[in-house]
Amino acid sequence: MIQKINSHYAKVFTAPLGHYRYIINMGGRGAGRSKVAAQRATAKICAPEYYRAAIMRLVKEDIKNSIFTDVRDNMEELGIDQIINITENPLMFRYGKNSIRGLGFKKNGDQKSKLKSLANFNEVIIEEADEIGPEDFIMLDDSLRTLKSPVTVMMNLNPPDINHWIIKRWFNLVQAIDEDGNVVDGFYKPVLKSEFTEQVLFIDTNYLVNAKNIAASTKYNWEQYRTTNPDHYWSVIRGMVSAGAKGRIYKNWLPLSATEFDALPYPSYYAIDFGFTNDPTAIVEIKEHNNRVYVKELVYRTGLINRDPGGKLPNISDELARHDVPKGARIYADCAEPKSIAELQADGWNVHASTKGSDSIRVGVDLLLGKEVFYTENSSNVEREQQKYCWGLDKNKEPTNKPIDDFNHAMDAIRYGVYTHSLRSYVGF
After folding, report:
1. Do residues 297 and 378 lie in contact, with contact meaning Cβ atoms separated by under 8 Å?
2. Which fold has domain 254-427?
3. pTM of whole model > 0.85?
4. What is the distance between the alpha carbons of residues 242 and 235, in angstroms, rounded to a whole number?
């Protein structure tokens, strides 16, 4: 049996058995990832070595018309489908003692169903791996423990957005650059983290590596998206990692570890956006150097009063103390809450009203847009808001120049702090 393999995927077939626990084929449309997975499965099932594999998607019922069909079509093209026992109930390929089963993490309409152990399987091929949640993946990964052969998990997927667990677990991100050397705003190129190079084979793909198998008219249409729908072009066609939704304001913020933040040798200041019943109080610690802003989320919760000398009710003053904020540290807070500021000052905190002026939201947003911003990885609400904080849309669903009044509690605290702190040298406070 001879298969013609796309040279871009050569390592999928030539890597020493068991060298890589994970193979991640990730990239844009038309790259031929499913074909390669089908070729690998076909080669393995026909080999004399032990091979018990599962081809999987999130929902079992989706397998039959996707990867299961790809494997069967590949066998038919090679003329070996007559020697492979193929059944549809259950979904299975069998050749001698080797087999491939079609399995799902969930059953259609039963999102609470749980995957059974795959202890005797030595390979799993997951199509549309970005559909899988981290808990389901960990359960699968932990169940693969056969001693009969090294274990491999192969994942095929289009790049998810910047917050997906696959990106966070295995990849660093670098700013996407087009062929002319221009920054592609809001998109990143995934780069495998150095600590995983011995464990993970990452193959970065898009249609350019498979161009000879794609019709010229299709390629032409895809390239038109570069001007007509650039978000679709860079994410779906070219396989870059997207920073988020349409109209998103802050696209290029990046995470850093809390340890890295704490080690930064720059003075801290703090900022508060007040809330109570429905809106949370958000408190952040901020450091700056040159044109970079570093943010650490300290507090994000509802039901906080300002101070409680009796110590019985949850309050902002106690939260500041719990997070080791020095009493003399400069704290900026929403100037629309003078009573709250006065109460915190009465408790000994060095709180200053934020500066607001004409169109202060837009001015503050513009200031942050001109800076490199980093947030700690445990700042989950900063991250969530940053992903969802967008310009309002007009009647044609196009972004305006006014932010939405939502997902903005931590965003407002950061804006108050950075904007007001930037004015200190001018207004002398």
Report:
1. yes
2. Nucleotidyltransferase; domain 5 (3.30.420)
3. no
4. 6
